[in-house]
Amino acid sequence: MTIAEQKVTLGFEAEVKQLLQLMIHSLYSNKEIFLRELISNASDAADKLRFSALSHEALYEDDSELKIRIELDKDARTLTITDNGIGMSREEVQQNIGTIARSGTRQFFEALTGDEAKDSQLIGQFGVGFYSSFIVADRVVLETRRAGAAHSEGVRWESQGEGDYTLESIEKPQRGTRVILHLRDGEDDFLESWRLRTTVQKFSNHISLPIEMKKEHHGEDADAQPEEYETINSASALWTKSRDEITDEAYNEFYKHVSHDFQEPLARVHSRVEGTNEFTLLLYVPAHAPFDLWDRETKHGIKLYVRKVFIMDDTEKLMPRYLRFIRGVIDSDSLPLNVSREILQENKLLDKIRAGAVKKVLGLFEDLAKNDSEKYAALWKQFGQVIKEGPIEDFANKERIAKLMRFNSTHSASDVQDVSFDDYIGRMKEGQDKIWYVTAENLAAAKNSPHLEIFKKKGIEVILLHERVDEWLVSHLSEYDGKHLQSVARGELDLGDLETEEEKQEVENVAKDFEGLIEKIKKTLNDKAGDVKLSHRLTDSPACLVTEHYGMSRTMERIMKSAGQFAAGGKPILEINPKHPIVLKLRDESNDSRFDDLAHILFDQAVLSEGGQLDDPASFVHKLNGLLQNLAD
Ligand code: ADP
Ligand code: MG
Q1: Ligand 1 test: best mutation among 130, 146, 172, most atoms within 8 Å of CB?
Q2: Do 215 and 264 share a domain, yes or no?
Q3: Which of 139, 193, 334, 465 could form a disulfide with 470 if both were Cys (CB 3.0 to 4.6 A apart)?
Q4: Where is the stretch described as A (predicted)?
């Protein structure tokens, strides 16, 4: 006997143990989901075999009728789920349901809140999969053999869902996988045939694979009857049916099957695209952002089929990254069946399918935005930050995506992002030709930015941008509907016709009085300020910082620096308010050291008021305290 054949006991990683414990406890009220997960795995295994057999017919081993069978044994108190799908090798068993936590496990634990109701939703998003068997079973045995492998290459995996599991080699003539659940005390419900049937039907009616259960015989000679099986699900791929044949419940169950989410989806689109490149799609918007929404490594949630044969799952080619939260199925009639995944990756048809699918998804969003504002608000709240990547990634649909975006603005007191560009344009002042925005690191800083003062005074609406992605967004979206998007904190402020000639003159009239002061501040702040100017954008604040017209914005610079990247945004321009008492005081200050302190404080408070960090906070505090001391004396 070689080592590989001996029975070995192996330990789960700490994280797997933790996951198991958590699942068993938090999911107890939802316990029948284990059936959905096991049937889902069996169905995936059949899909994989069907695909591999396209190029290796022999993998069918003369048994090409793929199916799932569910058996009960009341005496042994076991529930067994058998498939004749692709099966697993010993290495695969170890990799897939063995020692190591799957990618994402760590983030999952980080996302946990301790609130059981919330956490159980997270588990759903995480994909509970195979381990959910331990919710109802205190011992699980899995026997499997990879399609095409020798009968002697079967593997038995067994665990009680605690610290470890055993692996041993077995003889397994039938290809595929068998999962035997030894039910916990009190789970006898799952030994009732009717209970199982209704649960399986609820979860898996849409599965394209037949699910068989033993026919029940009643009466005296029940035991004498031969074993007969019947198919208990409808066994046709859901997306191939017409919309009016599918109930909401069936649609929602299918969503749970493809997404591993427990919750109902927010919205769906089921559509057939005709023409030279025909395909059917059934796509869903989840109600909640998955915990790994920001993980660059996550696989995309669209399954590609070709005439009902599953082709691939990691379909980055089928949805752009800004729609990475979409889940569902795309089934093409036009792609060739007998292709490898590698060739598919290069296939031009796939690009066309993707473009068509994106159109449908954007159409769904537009429909919600127009007809179901509550749902659209929920969608934007969950995925708005991701959709904002759209204009950068998907140039062709830039304008369409921009129309779907919602923002905070000075028009609305609410913290909900509910202002569209079209709303904004509808409220533009006579003579206003630009869409004004301010960027800041959070909503409060945006709302209170000194740059907004003149806009408030004139009643001009400003869009408040405060999410990280916004800086990238405005650097790629320079106009909407022919109107230029303009930062309130960049370059010379030009309000065009919105300022009267008199107002424009006002600052120039006093310019002479401040020439000396400006030169003096420039010298004093030589290291910090690129330039010093008189401002006409301030009414209440003494000073603010402005970026040069083509420079990197101050918010962008902060974001990059906080991400540890090198960012040289150049020195900002300090604008001072000629009407402010502090500025007037500074102009009349004759004591050099007090002037110096006051000028630095003026600059530093402008940094603070835009939510920035001081290079030398101690020196600021020291200077400020000096002033306060003067007051106290
Ligand atoms: P997921 O299905 O989301 O990948 P699971 O925990 O349900 O997660 O399953 C883990 C892996 O184990 C699967 O990806 C698959 O590779 C393998 N697996 C589970 N069940 C089966 C089965 N019945 N046949 C073949 N492989 C299986
Ligand atoms: Mg699974």
Answers
A1: 130
A2: no
A3: 465
A4: 1-341
**Residue 194: is its pLDDT beyond 70?**
yes
CA of 41 to the centre of ligand 1 (A): 5
Reference 89, options 43, 153, 160; nearest CA is 153
Is the pLDDT confidence value at 547 over 90?
no
Are 127 and 271 in the same domain? Answer: no
- Give the integer Cα–Cα distance in Å for 523 and 531: 10
126 is in an annotated binding site: yes
Ligand nearest to the CA of 93: 1
The residue out of 218, 234, 250 marking a domain boundary is: 234
Q: Which of 215, 234, 253 is the last residue of a domain?
A: 234
Residue 125 marked as a ligand binder = yes
Provide the domain limits for residue 191: 4-234
Q: Ligand 1, closest atom to CA 86?
A: 25
What separation, in Å, do the N-terminal and C-terminal C-alpha atoms of the chain show?
93
**Residue 186 is assigned to a ligand binding site:** no
Residue 1, amino acid: M
pLDDT for residue 602? 94
Strands 483-487 and 164-170: unpaired
Tell me, what's the pLDDT at 335?
85
Q: How confident is the model at residue 413 (pLDDT cuts 50, 70, 90)?
A: confident
CATH number where 165 lies: 3.30.565.10
pTM for this predicted structure: 0.84
Other C-beta atoms lying within 10 Å of the C-beta of residue 418: 17
For residues 200 and 59, membership in a common domain is answered with yes
Work out the average pLDDT over 518-540. Answer: 92
| Whether residue 473 is found in the same domain as residue 513 | yes
Count of domains for the chain: 3
Please tell me the predicted confidence (pLDDT) of residue 295. 72
pLDDT confidence tier of residue 330, bands split at 50, 70 and 90? very high
Give the residue, by CA position, lying nearest to ligand 1 atom 19.
41
The whole-angstrom separation of Cα 545 and Cα 356 is 46
- Confirm whether 106 is domain-assigned: yes
Rg of the chain on CA atoms, in Å: 32
Task: Report the pocket of ligand 1 as residue ranges, CB < 6 Å.
Answer: 37, 41-42, 45, 83, 85-88, 96-97, 127, 129-130, 177
Residue 393 resides in a domain: no
pLDDT tens digits, 99-146: 666 666 777 777 777 776 677 666 666 666 898 899 999 999 999 999
Same domain, 50 and 15: yes
